[in-house]
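Q: I'm writing up a methods section and want to include an example of the input and output format. Could you take the sequence below and give the corresponding predicted structure tokens, formatted cleanly so I can copy it straight into the document?
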Amino acid sequence: MHLITEKGGEAIFVRTDVSKAVEVQALISQAVVTYGRLDCVHNNAGISGGVRALTQTIPKKRGIK
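A: Here is the clean output for your methods example:
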């Protein structure tokens, strides 16, 4: 983050366990509260495997479209 802020950018860090839907939802909520919207996400954690869209990762009942 410090590399972003040193160059005049803005960044936040939200510790998130992406295997827990409630934590992912909290991360999304924090981004929306901080920046007004969320345009894209990139998960750079975990083990290798198939790539899935965020909408395939989080249950539809969470209200994410």
